[in-house]
Design brief:
Layout: E1 7-8, H1 9-16, H2 20-28, E2 50-51, H3 53-67, H4 72-84, E3 100-105, E4 108-113, E5 118-120, E6 124-128, E7 139-140
Antiparallel strand pairs: 1-2, 3-4, 3-7, 4-5, 5-6
């Protein structure tokens, strides 16, 4: 993918697997607001939201967490705790790019500080965990592309969908 200064909500939806409607819903509820919000035009319509490359990467992580079963409330809490407790945004906590690194273990997300302290971000972000040995189940939270939607091949016995408009 070629990097651009700003991405439209359609481009973000295509890359993340989120729908444009989900992005709009997240924006309206303050979960994830784009750098360039939609605004009214002279003709009575609205412009499209625009996202920075950093926001695109953050949305890729959030979309992946949604596919893993994380609720919107938990994603909102993740973003809030990162801002309030660790004073970083999601981008600064993925792939070792900042002072905090996020790890995932099934349905729990942990933050490891540069000093090595480990916190359960969603449940007890103010209480460092006592870690005895390293858990092999912890995986660093990284940017992942959504699974591709395959077209063309059909399993035998699967009905075909009509491709007309309507």
């Amino acid at each position: 993918m070629k990097l651009k200064k700003l991405y439209s909500s359609r481009e973000v939806a295509a890359v993340t697997g989120l729908s444009a409607r989900q992005l709009q819903w997240w924006d309206r509820r303050g979960i994830f607001t784009p750098s360039v919000p939609a605004h009214p035009t002279d003709r009575g319509g609205f412009t499209e939201r625009r996202y920075t490359p950093i926001e695109l990467l953050e949305l890729m992580v959030l979309a992946d967490l949604r596919r893993r079963g994380f609720t919107m409330a938990r994603l909102r809490r993740l973003l809030s705790v990162l801002r309030a407790r660790f004073e970083v945004r999601l981008y600064d906590a993925i792939e070792g790019t900042g002072p905090v690194t996020l790890y995932i273990d099934g349905d729990k997300i942990y933050a490891r500080t540069a000093a090595g302290d480990l916190f359960n971000v969603l449940d007890q972000p103010d209480q460092p965990l006592l870690v005895v040995g390293e858990s092999a189940r912890l995986r660093e939270l990284t940017v992942r592309e959504p699974p591709s939607r395959r077209r063309g091949k059909r399993r035998p016995g699967t009905p075909t969908r009509a491709r007309g408009r309507g």
